[in-house]
Known about the structure:
321 residues, alpha+beta, 10 strands
Amino acid sequence: xxxxxxxxxxxxxxxxxxxxxxxxxxxxxxxxxxxxxxxxxxxxxxxxxxxxxxxxxxxxxxxxxxxxxxxxxxxxxxxxxxxxxxxxxxxxxxxxxxxxxxxxxxxxxxxxxxxxxxxxxxxxxxxxxxxxxxxxxxxxxxxxxxxxxxxxxxxxxxxxxxxxxxxxxxxxxxxxxxxxxxxxxxxxxxxxxxxxxxxxxxxxxxxxxxxxxxxxxxxxxxxxxxxxxxxxxxxxxxxxxxxxxxxxxxxxxxxxxxxxxxxxxxxxxxxxxxxxxxxxxxxxxxxxxxxxxxxxxxxxxxxxxxxxxxxxxxxxxxxxx
Length: 321
């Protein structure tokens, strides 16, 4: 995508995320903008622009479901199908085949309310396979936790494999890696907004007759936040050049850690104001903490990477500088 085209596309996506009243409205706006067409033409740009905008505005859409459904090879554009995600902290396929029955335990996004089918990835003796099942075969329970506005559902159930559409072989690690990159960009977007909120406060709030942004301690926190955000963004950009499960996991884990670092520093800069519900910082902290747990928690991904290195006896390839 050329620079001019990217600027126009980014402006349109950002306007859509800022003005959409709910997830359904944002989905419609993204269709009007041709986001799914852009996904086919320039996947890194389409994903990074949308998900960073979602993180910056704490909005939600069915884009993660569309992205995973397309990566799983369901055909078409993935519209009308919600994908069951792994449970919090995990990144393994949420289903398993037990004889003729498929057992499902995972999470669903708000897209479940706008679809009539769910795409379940289950581990079978021959590898991962996708099952398109009617939502009536699954039990859903809204997750009223740290960030209910995200619209997550706990999804559980058992269904006979014969009841679902013909299963298709799927590369779940590759699809999960793509989802991890998307969530990494969303974490970066949330981090940028938290830093901007803290920066604006540091310029406006005065102590001892001058803005607190002139104090060295405050400047250090803001500077460390900026470094954390830019480092995460750079690692995500590098991971697009080699979108393997290893590099995607590294980028997602680092983005989660960076966003938590930014949240901690910005909370300190905002002081008591940052603890109030009148100030929007809490919305981004909540969203950051939950996003860090989706498709693999940062600490779990880091531990798994270390285990794989110990077992394999080799380090992952270094990124080109």
